[in-house]
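Q&A log
Question type: sequence-to-structure
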Amino acid sequence: MRWSGRAFLGLALLAASPAEAFDCHKAATPAEKAICADPAARAADAAMADAFRKRFASESASAKRTLIAAQGRWLQQRDRDCMDAKPLGACLAKESARRRAFLAAEPEAGPGAPGRLAPVFRIESGSKTKADIDLQLLKYPAPATPTERAFNAAVDGLVGPLDEPGPDEPNPGGYAHDRLMRLVYASSKLVSAHLSGYEDVGGAHPNSFSGNVNILAAEGREANFADLLDPRGAKAVFALCLKQVIAAKRARMGADAPVGAEFINELNKQVDEATAKLDAWSFGPDAAIVAYDPYSVGPYVEGAYECAIPYTTLKPLAKPDFPLP
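Response status: OK
Response body:
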């Protein structure tokens, strides 16, 4: 991801001044114009800017430069992700609210995590011999409890190795590793964080992926699928998610969507296997979301799918001691 000098200048001014992130009289990009035209988007942007200023004020000189670089990259990514959204202002408001929570190390829902989480950034520009790295994570700066150590270890596992281009790599300048986290829900019993990733390591095409950290805070360990569902509940959830994935495939492909028994049987196996991994699950305020990355329930070209399970549906199926929101 690359970011412009204009974005850098705006962030530098933002960090130094209590003024708005930009002057609406000078709004130039579609995102800036949409924010200025939408009161909710403008309020979300102002709240995010305030969280950025507070984070900036608490950092060292070198960390300030990294924070500005990270925020500049995130702003460009937000605008790209919302580019085709209708209405644009609503998408920008949602993403800005999520960013405010991230910068403040607060959950998007729930009373809050035990201990003190903090954003962690690693921003390194790529070259022919170096991968471009953009890590924007949440971690415990000084983990002292089993919960804190379990959370940090799970985050490290999701980040994984960051491959660098080798001496014989035909496209060495294209290597990139992006990781961005959100604290979706947190309480004294459950901490659920979502990571979205992008990776280009010189293959036929880049890959996007996701993962989740779900910590049983009262027990100080990462949750697993057997903590959530017994075989009877799992069977019901698998069937529900299969139905959603089939509907999404038909909506995307129309008459070209495969519908034969052989296809359904294979898809059933794929959905069961993917859904039975709790790192595919995130727990929001009203529903659990199971994310199916490209390749998991279809070819790469189809992209990602998801299964949304409202708690009104999930709670009767879940084990009674699993701390659902």
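Response note: Confidence is low (pLDDT under 50) at residues 1-9, 16-20.
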